[in-house]
Amino acid sequence: MLPHADDAITRDGKALILAYDHGLEHGPVDFDPNPDTADPEAVWELATHDAVSAFAVQKGIAEAYYPSYSEDVSLLAKLNGTSNMWMGEPDSAVNWSAEYAADLGADAIGFTLYGGSNNEVEMAEEFREAQETAREHDMGVVLWSYPRGQGMKNDTSPRTIAYAARQGLELGADVAKVKYPGSPEAMAEACEMAGPAKVVMSGGSKTDDRAFLSTVESAVSAGAAGLAVGRNVFQRENPVEILDALEAVIYEEATAEEALERTGNAAVADD
């Protein structure tokens, strides 16, 4: 990783990456809870929220919409991704190059690595090419570090998540996105293993507001730089309110309860 390489996709050293690569990775099912979000424009509008430090999308979404939002949104080009119709050993197709992302105006690239997969070696080599090209264009690098595959007995154990965070540092990522390992102590170890690279927690499947914000609070208090989240924002009926709450927890280090109170809507806690 390089000092300050992630400045364009962070805010005061913290990050809230809004991810919207779900249409490719998961398909239309992820839009069912909030059908309006099948329209990319609706989520681009969410990405203009002050809490959002970067917006992660695939090539087609970036091409179609980023020119209209380039003044208001920091673009994180998610270079690889595969539909869940793929049934083989975990792998992720490289769908665009870092050079093309730079030409489009991206501030950073994102790349998934499935450590433990039979395809790990090939994916790491693809990441190396993307990472070095990103450096040539002064772009930050975010690694979706997701241990998965035949080599993994428990892909969410604390030591496995710590290993995933360390892979981010070792391979040259500025930010490593990992799953929450279950406790503040385990998250603290993951952050320690990442050294100077930042660690952000994966948002995961939608949960109720209080439980979600409490987990984010725990991760931040343990040293995480923030969050990379999709469904836990755009699947909600009031996504702006949860972004307001996340802004308080991540950037102001408010508690989950304090953040819920700031929304001005008590019902959000029992979403």
Summarize the entry for a quick read:
The protein has 271 residues and is α/β, with parallel strands linked by helices. It has 11 helices and 8 strands.
Describe the structure.
The chain is α/β, with parallel strands linked by helices and 271 residues long. Helix content is 40%, strand content 14%. The protein has 11 helices and 8 strands. An 8-stranded parallel beta barrel has the order 1-2-3-4-5-6-7-8, surrounded by 6 helices. Helix 8 links the parallel strand 7 (198-202) and strand 8 (226-229). It starts with 14 loop residues before the first strand and ends in a 9-residue tail after the last helix. Residues 266-271 have low confidence and may be disordered.
Topology:
Elements: E1 15-19, H1 22-25, H2 40-47, E2 54-57, H3 59-69, E3 75-78, H4 98-104, E4 108-113, H5 120-136, E5 140-145, H6 158-171, E6 175-178, H7 184-193, E7 198-202, H8 209-221, E8 226-229, H9 231-234, H10 239-251, H11 256-262
Helix pairs in contact: 6-7, 8-10, 8-11, 10-11
The side-by-side strand order for the widest beta sheet comes to 1-2-3-4-5-6-7-8
Strand content range: 5-15%
Shape: globular
SS element count, helices:
11
SSE string, helices as H and strands as E:
EHHEHEHEHEHEHEHEHHH
What are its keywords?
40% helix; 271 residues; eight-stranded parallel β-barrel; alpha/beta
